[in-house]
Amino acid sequence: MALRRCGYLLACLLLGACAHEETPVRVVDDRAPPAMTREGGRLVIPEGSTLRDRLRVEALTVRPVRRALEAPAHVEADPARIARITPPLPGRVVSVAVHFGQEVRRGDTLLTLDAPELVGAQTEYLDARTALAQADRSLARQRDLSSHGIASRADLETAETQQEIASAEVARATSRLRLLGVSGGAVGRPLVLRAPIAGRVVDLHVSMGEFHSDLAAPLLTIADLSTVWVTADVQERDLARVSVGMQVHAELAAYPDAPVTGEVLYVGDLLDPATRTLPVRIAFDNPELRLHPGMFARVTFEATALPEIVVPQTAIVLRGDSNVVFVETAPWTFEPREVTLGPPLGDALVVTHGLDAGDRVVVQNAVLLQ
Questions:
Q1: Is the pTM of this model over 0.85?
Q2: β-strands 322-330, 317-319: how paired?
Q3: pLDDT reading at 112 higher than 80
Q4: 33, 61, 68: which is closest to 47 by C-alpha?
Q5: How would residue 118 be classed by pLDDT, with cut points 50, 70 and 90?
Q6: How far apart are CA 322 and CA 217, in angstroms?
Q7: pLDDT tens digits, one per residue of 247-277
Q8: CA–CA separation, 73 vs 283, rounded Å?
Q9: Fewest beta carbons within 10 Å, which of 76, 113, 196, 262?
Q10: At what angle do helices 153-179 and 116-147 cross, to 10 degrees?
């Protein structure tokens, strides 16, 4: 009985001690601000947010940037330095004086033709000369008779008119021979075709004994390739960076380790609607004849410095296929804005569309606003 009472008293004492112990209370501070909130399409960084210490916002300025502009190109011959030799008359080739790849000078003989129509032109010339000689003798006789009072005034005028007509016929026949490349002293000889320019025979489609009647088909082609054109296809958006007279470097597929330097000669006027490009023609000296028409090249324009908006790469955030920056529209309020980027400039990027000078954007840790 006594033992039971002692146990009861011990239990009461333990319960009393427990009743006097304080239970710890956990306090939850629900007043800490969120890192950021969204209001429609805008992001608001509230006061006290840790993001305010991590983001850096700067106003954009315009600065001159010299960007290299590259474009595909191909080599062309200067049309003013090409001569396609066609037969002036149908005829048979008597001889060919040149071969493929031969250098020729202006006036050198290329080939000779035996043309039936040339015989007619030469005969007409000889007849005109004979008629002129007869008209000259008749006029001289009439003048002599008139000076002695024997011939009438009408006879003298008739002789003068006939002499003028004969002279005109000789001039016409001479001009026709000259157009055919024949002088009056070469009457009776075959038609000789001569080089109109100095250059190299780059195409040859004629052999001795052939008869050629197509006056539009070239027999051979001479090209002066000491200066060639390289035509580049420049995108519409880059036209402001190209001007006549600017220096251009070209790297050819055939000579990748030997770039050449030229000068912009002409900027085209008609835009290709399919590719949105404009042809830009560059003149290159070609003294060693290493540049051949049809070669492919890639040209680099020494662009002049233009005002550009540049942002650090840390300001750009990739969203899907779009590049986005965060523009501050009010203190610590930002909106995402899609931008179009130009080429990289070290650790910065050129923005060609989407931003204006003076815009305040997040330039550091912008990715935290995703």
A1: no
A2: antiparallel
A3: yes
A4: 33
A5: confident
A6: 56
A7: 899 999 888 888 889 999 999 999 999 999 9
A8: 12
A9: 196
A10: 160
DSSP H helices in 22-179: 51-54, 116-147, 153-179
Position 31: which residue type?
R
| Six token digits for residue 237 | 């958006």
DSSP conformation class of 354: S
- How far is the C-alpha of 56 from the C-alpha of 50, rounded, in Å? 12
Residue whose entry in the numeric block shows the structure tokens 């493929």: 100
Q: Are 329 and 359 in contact (CB under 8 A)?
A: no
* Distance from C-alpha of 189 to C-alpha of 199, rounded to nearest angstrom: 27
pLDDT, one tens digit per residue, over 156-200 is: 888 889 989 989 998 888 888 787 767 666 666 778 889 999 999
Calpha distance 269→229 (Å, rounded):
17
Structure tokens at 182: 């024949």
* Neighbour tally for 308: CB within 10 Å: 16
Alpha helices in 55-115 (DSSP H): none
Q: For residues 265 and 238, what is the distance between their CA atoms, to the nearest angstrom?
A: 17
Task: Give the pLDDT confidence of 71-108 residue by residue, as tens digits.
Answer: 999 999 998 899 999 988 888 999 999 999 899 999 99
Give the sign of the dihedral formed by CA 345, CA 257, CA 287, CA 220: negative
- Reference 180, options 132, 223, 215, 208; nearest CA is 215
Pairing of strands 277-285, 227-235: antiparallel
Alpha carbon distance 75, 260 (integer Å):
12
Rounded Cα distance between 209 and 196, Å, is: 23
